[in-house]
Write a structure and sequence with these properties.
The protein is an alpha+beta fold. Helix content is about 15%, strand content about 40%. The chain has a five-stranded antiparallel β-sheet with strand order 1-2-8-4-5, with no helix packed on it. A three-stranded antiparallel β-sheet has the order 3-7-6, with no helix packed on it. A hairpin with a 2-residue loop joins strand 6 and strand 7. Helix 2 crosses helix 3.
C-alpha cells in the first residue's frame, strides 16, 4: 500500500515538473506571447529572479475626468458664405465623482452668446479655447443638470496648431464652403 502512495506521488511530481515554456507562462500569469517575451527580458536567465529594468518606461497618465456628459442635442444652422456655424447645444451632464459647481468644455474658435440653465443665465468665461461655466449650485455625482449654450463657431478665423499626426486642430472644418472647386461637394465636419 505504501508503495502505491510513493508511485502516485512520483507521478504527480512528474506531471507538475516544468519546462522552460511552462516557467515563462507561469511567470506571466497568462499574458500574451509578446508580453511573456518582454517579461522574460527582465528576468535573470540563470536564477529566474526578476531584474529591474535599466530605464523606466514613460508614464502617460489618462486625462482627468471631471464631468460625465450624458446627452448632447445640437440645433445647427450653417452659413456657407461666411463658413460659420450657428448653434444651440443642450448638454445634460453630471459630476464624474467629486461634487462640482462648474462645467468646463473644449470650445475652439467660437463666440459664446449665452449660457443658460433652467432658463436662467449662467456666468461663464471663454478663454484659450475653453468655456468655463459656473453652475447655479454644487452638484453631486447623483445629480444631473442641463445647460443650453448659444454660440457661433468660426473655425476659419482662428489660428490653428496641430501635430505630426493631426496637422490642424480647428475642431470644425468647412470643405469647399464657397463652391470654388466644382469637383468637390461642400462639406462640414468635426473632429
Amino acid at each position: 500500500m505504501r508503495k502505491s502512495y510513493i508511485v502516485i506521488a512520483s507521478l504527480i511530481l512528474a506531471a507538475c515538473g516544468s519546462s522552460k515554456n511552462n516557467v515563462k507562462t507561469s511567470q506571466t500569469g497568462g499574458f500574451s506571447e509578446k508580453n511573456a517575451t518582454e517579461l522574460a527580458q527582465v528576468v535573470d536567465k540563470g536564477t529566474q529572479k526578476p531584474v529591474a529594468p535599466k530605464e523606466r518606461a514613460i508614464f502617460h497618465a489618462s486625462e482627468t475626468i471631471l464631468t460625465n456628459l450624458i446627452h448632447t442635442k445640437l440645433d445647427l444652422k450653417v452659413d456657407w458664405a461666411k463658413a460659420y456655424l450657428y448653434g444651440k447645444a443642450t448638454i445634460t451632464a453630471k459630476p464624474h465623482f467629486y461634487p462640482s459647481d462648474s462645467l468646463i468644455l473644449d470650445a475652439k474658435g467660437m463666440d459664446i452668446n449665452a449660457v443658460k440653465l433652467n432658463g436662467k443665465d449662467l456666468k461663464f468665461d471663454y478663454a484659450n479655447d475653453f468655456l468655463k461655466i459656473k453652475l447655479d449650485k454644487t452638484y453631486t455625482r447623483n445629480e444631473q443638470y442641463t445647460v443650453e449654450i448659444d454660440y457661433v463657431a468660426k473655425p476659419n478665423e482662428r489660428e490653428t496648431g496641430g501635430s505630426a499626426a493631426i496637422t490642424s486642430d480647428k475642431g470644425l472644418y468647412f470643405i469647399n464652403h464657397d463652391g470654388s472647386d466644382p469637383n468637390k461637394m461642400p462639406q462640414i465636419w468635426t473632429q
